[in-house]
Design goal:
This protein is of the alpha/beta class and 840 residues long. It has four domains: 28-164, 2-Layer Sandwich (Chitobiase, domain 2); 170-468, Alpha-Beta Barrel (TIM Barrel), CATH 3.20.20; 500-655, no CATH class; 669-838, Sandwich (Jelly Rolls), CATH 2.60.120. Helix content is 36%, strand content 19%. The protein has 23 helices and 30 strands. Strands 9, 10, 11, 12, 13, 14, 15, 16 and 17 form a nine-stranded parallel sheet that branches. Strand 25 (770-779) and strand 26 form a beta hairpin. The longest helix has 33 residues, at 595-627. The protein is globular.
């Protein structure tokens, strides 16, 4: 019921107008009947004429310019003899004009207002903004900007009295710039300005491998990492807007983008691990250096060491260390080493709290001055962890998320519930505030520009947790962000794109068209695919109509329309994809028409889908480049190209008369016969050696092998090392693209007997080693021979020297056992070099 209520709120939001048209809702407002009107003679008077007050006045003139209003003269209070009408006064509480206006207008500055609060009063004579702090003055101006209304005769402000202050100290967002999108400097600045407009005071970039370290040029290579100079420039820029930049740098887990590089593999818990080796002193020396470089770029007293999701600790080189103590102790010992480093560089520690909740004994082993970031991303009625951290004596902030990571458009129903309820539970249990996350999982394909709506809701809940009326909020946000004329059109667009009937997962979008459909996607339940397709087909034209209508009206942030239009077009392509694939399934079963007739129709369907997708691809590249650096785009464009190749390969197959459209990998996953795949117990074979002897024959033109493994494998041909696979399932598209590798083994083969040998190790707990090899040998006469793992392969849990060559006979080794892999895997295309893909 709560999800349906949220969707209903989204649809009807524009019908309610708040008495104070400000986000976040002020603590106290009193409306007046009088109206202040700006003219070219309106004066801006600054109490102390400080640089900060001058900057605040610039915000007013900037907003007036955007509304085509007058530019106002700015004067220092000392230069003004009389101030009786047609003015805007901005000043600290101790100045003479401030004292006078507080008395005349019955304003008070309470203790809660000291740090960030303000008094704003507007009547027909003038507007005053008074605060104890410069930050309070700035926030008063942010409220005033939202109160400006453009009328035919000019710009006006409805009379109002506001006493306001935040309920929570920390209010902001964290921004994943590591898994895909890295903003241009201008886009970073836009996000900072957005935070400031809605009185959020923290912007926290999440950094894995996208900082340009002095001594580590390979980290972030080809990803446009942030330089120290850029970070310092952004930090300085944000200060003007009273936004604190707190860096988040991973110091334990989520190092997969770095550790997958051969030069850094030695620092891993095991090959392919996502965590560093916590027993390696060189790791701590490296982290000290890195933390120092990043910390020096930011003026915030805080440094977030992240340390979340470190599930690999103790599965490799630290297995014995964990056995001798326990996971909690090993984690705590690492944390304390990092705390010392951070404090050495003059910073206070923040960190994610998920591992501590999983291993609560850690709480008794680490100091209580660490600020925990308590993250939960589900839409729950209540959350227990704020009470846990509060009872344990840790300062903490809660961290919900904009649900931008599952598909092209954020799921704002889940987002709003998650933010509101987690913030409420944090606030009632004494949290310091809220840092709303967004994540660029799977390459960061979801455009960051679509997150602002959720950010603003986060600002609303953070400032005033007791005022969370979504109906009022929606009316205010769409009016402020898009302008009053276009607001209803854009509310319609957001409601339709966020509807559960129009949402789908990236896994569904890019899934091979001939694999079975999935409705049971991770994290959230979905409507049946057939229902969603019907909804998308019927509602995306409405989205485009609303966008066209908005574009014809005077509106703010008009560039935002391109992002929404792109999502609607991508949705429509997805519906076309599903319609085509379902039609193809029926055609394949047709027993009346000839293979040629069926092949021609299928090929035509494929061509149509590909043509539409190529257009969408071009649009995606365009909108991406509007706000992002280009380097990470290539991995995402490869997704489009892979999908295009699926359809082209399908068309070619059926036109050749082959109606077997199953794209699944035909080689089998094999393991030791004593292994127990799918069973979580200790009776496993974590390391195994596999062999296959075969005769290649004469006249080989080319020979290629694809290697897949659970989880680490080294491949030999005739005793010569060919290559390895280390990558494991990850949220990083950089890593995911390295899970399957194709090797050219032509030069390793002989005309007579050959041996393929693979050493495989699975580092997961209670899991066995397994491998999948597929290959093709093409002869000079054009004939093709396939190779694949099956029960003709031999396996052993131990191997003598020379086991990977013909010097050792493996006839006595057990026959490999076959297992079914838990998820579909698409077969490779050796002719084009396209590797297999692990579907989810």
């Amino acid at each position: 019921m709560s999800m349906l209520r949220s969707l209903f709120i989204l649809l009807i939001a524009g019908t309610v107008i708040a008495s104070a048209s400000v986000i976040p809702t002020p603590q106290s407002t009193v409306s007046r009947s009088s109206v202040f009107k700006f003219t070219s003679a309106t004066k801006v008077v600054l109490g102390s004429n400080s640089a900060g007050e001058q900057f605040i006045a610039e915000q007013l003139n900037g907003e007036l310019a955007s509304l085509r209003g007058p530019q106002l003269k700015v004067s220092a209070a000392d230069d003004v003899r009389r101030l009786s009408g047609n003015f805007v006064f901005i000043g600290r509480a101790g100045t003479e004009f401030a004292k006078r206006f507080l008395k005349e207008r019955k304003g008070t500055l309470t203790p809660q207002m000291k740090a960030e609060g303000y008094f704003l009063d507007a009547d027909a004579n003038g507007i005053v903004i008074i605060a104890e702090s410069e930050k309070g003055l700035f926030y008063g101006m942010m409220s005033l900007l939202q109160l400006l209304t453009a009328e035919k005769k000019g710009i006006a402000v409805q009379g109002i009295t506001i006493h306001d202050y935040p309920a929570q100290k920390i209010r902001g967002i964290t921004d994943d710039i590591s898994r895909g999108q890295i903003s241009t400097l201008e886009n970073f600045k836009k996000i900072i300005r957005f935070c400031a407009r809605y009185k959020m005071n923290v912007y926290s970039p999440y950094i894995e491998d996208v900082f340009a370290f002095k001594n580590h040029p390979l980290i972030g290579k080809d990803r446009s990492p942030l330089t120290a100079a850029e970070c310092k420039a952004l930090d300085s820029y944000a200060k003007q807007y009273h936004v604190e930049l707190i860096p988040i740098f991973e110091t334990l887990g989520h190092w997969e983008n770095i550790l997958i590089r051969p030069e850094y593999a030695r620092f891993a818990e095991f090959p392919g691990a996502q965590t560093v080796n916590v027993s390696d002193e060189k790791v701590y020396a490296m982290l000290d250096e890195m933390i120092g470089e990043i910390a020096a770029c930011f003026s915030s007293p805080y440094f977030n060491i992240a340390a979340d999701e470190s599930w690999d600790v103790g599965l490799g080189v630290n297995k014995e260390r964990v056995k001798k103590s326990d996971l909690a102790t090993v984690h705590a010992e690492h944390y304390k080493r990092i705390f010392e480093i951070v404090k050495k560089h003059g910073k206070k520690v923040m960190m994610y709290g998920d591992i501590i909740l999983d291993q609560p004994a850690i709480m008794q082993k680490i100091p209580k001055d660490v600020v925990m970031v308590d993250w939960h991303y589900g839409a729950n009625l209540d959350y227990s962890s704020p009470e846990i951290f509060s009872a344990a004596g840790f300062p903490y902030v809660v961290s919900p998320a904009v649900w931008n990571f599952t598909g092209p458009f954020p799921n704002y129903i889940v987002t709003f519930l998650n933010i509101e309820h987690l913030n409420r539970d944090g606030y009632t249990n004494g949290s310091l505030g809220i840092l709303c996350s967004n994540w660029n999982d799977f390459g960061g394909e979801a455009l960051r520009e679509l997150n602002y709506y959720g950010y603003a809701w986060n600002a609303q809940c953070a400032w005033n947790p007791d005022s969370t009326d979504q109906t009022v909020f929606n009316a205010l946000f769409f009016r402020d962000f898009f302008g009053s004329e276009a607001s209803s059109d854009l509310q319609t667009v957001y409601a339709l794109l966020s509807s559960p009937a129009n949402q789908y997962h990236w896994y569904e979008l890019w899934r091979h068209p001939m694999l079975p459909n999935r409705d049971d996607m991770i994290w959230e339940k979905r409507l049946a695919l057939v229902q969603r397709m019907q909804s998308i087909r019927s509602t995306m034209p409405l989205v485009h109509q609303a966008l066209d209508a908005a574009a014809k009206k005077g509106m703010k942030n008009e560039e935002h329309l391109q992002y929404l239009s792109f999502v609607a077009s991508l949705n429509s392509w997805f519906a076309s994809k599903v319609a085509a694939q379902e039609r193809i399934r029926l055609i394949v079963k047709d027993t009346v028409r000839t293979a040629d007739e069926r092949g021609a129709e299928i090929a035509a369907l494929c061509d149509g889908v590909v043509a539409e997708l190529r257009t969408v691809r071009q649009r995606f590249e365009s909108v991406w480049n509007t706000t992002n650096r280009k380097h990470s785009l290539e991995l995402l464009l490869q997704r489009y190209d892979r999908q295009i190749s699926y359809w082209n390969e399908l068309a070619a197959r059926v036109q050749s008369g082959d109606m077997n459209v199953d794209p699944s990998l035909q080689s089998q996953w094999i393991h030791h016969p004593q292994a127990r795949p799918g069973v979580k117990d200790s009776l496993q074979v974590p390391k195994a050696y596999f062999r296959k002897e075969f005769s290649a024959g004469k006249g080989i033109r080319s020979a290629k092998l694809q290697l897949l493994a659970d989880t680490y494998a080294q491949l030999w041909v005739n005793g010569t090392m060919v290559g390895s696979v280390e990558a494991r399932r990850s949220l990083s598209l950089t890593v995911e693209n390295q899970r399957a590798k194709i090797f050219d083994i032509t030069s390793y083969l002989t005309d007579t007997l050959n041996v393929i040998a693979v050493e495989v190790q699975n580092f997961q707990q209670n899991a066995s080693a397994s491998v999948n090899i597929a290959g093709e040998i093409v002869s000079t006469d054009g004939s093709l021979r396939t190779i694949g793992t099956d029960t003709t392969w031999r396996v052993s849990d131990a191997a003598p020297a020379g086991w990977n060559s013909l010097r050792v006979a493996a006839g006595s080794w057990p026959v490999a056992a076959v297992r079914k892999y838990p998820t579909p895997i698409v077969a490779p295309n050796f002719a084009t070099g396209r590797t297999s893909w692990y579907e989810r």
